[in-house]
Amino acid sequence: MDEVRSSNHVPMDEMNSSNPVNVFGSISSDQMEHRESFEVHKSVNEKRNLIWIDEMDNFLVDRLMEQMHKGQKIGGVFTKTTYAIVAREIGENFELSCNSKHIKNRMKTLKKKTFMLLKKLYKMVVHLVSMNQLK
């Protein structure tokens, strides 16, 4: 099972321009000397949410497509190895802690967003067709 690297907690009164924390909750390189002011949580069971940006989504889709072309999608389902590889690649590329569960959850989110977008598009097309039939 993938282990979640320690997350960092900065008290609200310590969050200011002289003590920045990047969007993924890890200490910026400028703050390494101030590391003692951060409370480190090492619990593996601790819930750890990632904030996904478009660049990460694009990277995820590209990596999954590569894995699919390599035959790592069997019966419409990616292998466990695929999730581990992609999680490691995202972690390395974006310098954050990412595991297979993050990948699976993001895929679900992207599928929901895509479905909702297609549903809206369908409704717009139906509306336009009905408007043209009235003319």
Automatic annotation (TrEMBL):
> Where is the region Disordered?
1-21
**In this protein, which residues make up the domain named Myb/SANT-like?**
52-121
A Pfam family that this protein carries is Myb_DNA-bind_3
Annotated InterPro entries? Myb/SANT-like_dom
**Protein name listed in UniProt:** Myb/SANT-like domain-containing protein
The protein's organism comes out as: Vitis rotundifolia (Muscadine grape)
